[in-house]
Description:
Layout: E1 4-7, H1 15-28, E2 34-37, H2 49-65, E3 73-75, H3 80-91, H4 96-100, H5 103-109, H6 117-132, E4 137-139, H7 142-162, E5 170-172, H8 207-215, H9 233-246, H10 250-256, H11 260-286, H12 289-317
Parallel strand pairs: 1-2, 2-3, 4-5
This protein binds ligand 1.
Ligand 1 is lined by residues 4-8, 16-17, 20-21, 38, 41, 126, 129-130, 138, 140-141, 143-144, 177-180, 189-190.
Amino acid sequence: xxxxxxxxxxxxxxxxxxxxxxxxxxxxxxEQDVYFISDLHGMTTPHNPQRLRSLTREQxxxxxxxGVEPRSVFVQSxxxxxxxxxxxxxxxxxxxxxAARMIQFREKAAGQSSVRLGLLTYPVLMAADILLxxxxxxxxxxxxxxxxxxxxxxxxxxxxxxxxxxxxxxPVTPPSAARVRDLSDPSRKxxxxxxxxxxxxxxxxxxxxxxxxxxxxxxxxxxxxxxxxQTQPGLANLLEILAACTGxxxxxxxxxxxxxxxxxxxxxxxxVEELRPIRAATMALLDDPAELDRIRAAGAVRARERSQxxxxxxxxxxxxx
Length: 321
Ligand code: TYM
């Protein structure tokens, strides 16, 4: 059984990425799993080349520091030729309507005067990532579930039209912390590319900054400590973050703390302690570029070997190559 997932270097890794994704890749992953840095997806909105390269490196270090199996990781662009080829085949399997319907595309494109075509085809590249590696399960947060549905549809369509090549992947949504919200605006999900980072806790933020961001989190003036995501989203978000760090249920935690201030102190402490070892290990890895390069190169070799036969079959059956 192969699980596959990825993170895009469009910013520094934030708490939602960590609790909702990276931590699970580390604790539940096996050597057969595949976790990668999707730097090609990092080019779908205006980007700075140097920053893309350095964030790719930083995110690779964070994954390894968090305990993701080194044999499972690679960098997407190390397979740019293979993925470019399969993306084209899948673009010719996907309709314009299907791509244009994607919620993330509509959200990211809204109000932009100039939208990169790659933003529209982003989920097709994601389907290529998933199908090329033969993933059975794709663990992602709610925000990416629709993209995995598209990958399923394209796998079925390709197999039905040209012949059985691809595994039809299953999306898996994590039970808790599926959506960590922005601390300053709980109507939005926490995002690494947020314009205002006051409500975004980054995994590499120093402890004092984490504490400050948590203390300034928006709650409400109802003064009622209960877990009510609909009516008290800010409070519910803090309870969910604490739940993800302690393994307790959010409603149970709401009963056990005395005030909003006490809750914020508990959240700040839990998050700081959760992130402390990862921050230290990331710094150590970034100080050892040769080791990071070695892991990256070995990961690319494994990812290419795992996928070669599927790409060859897809090209042959669709009438090219
Ligand atoms: P990305 O970089 O947006 O997010 C990486 C992972 O973090 C999860 N996540 C969150 N979880 C909880 N709360 C949040 N606030 C939060 N924000 C992000 C995401 O659900 C995701 O699991 N397109 C993908 C990367 C990708 C990919 C793939 C994933 C490229 N190819 C193939 C799966 C399979 C992305 O940009 O994730």
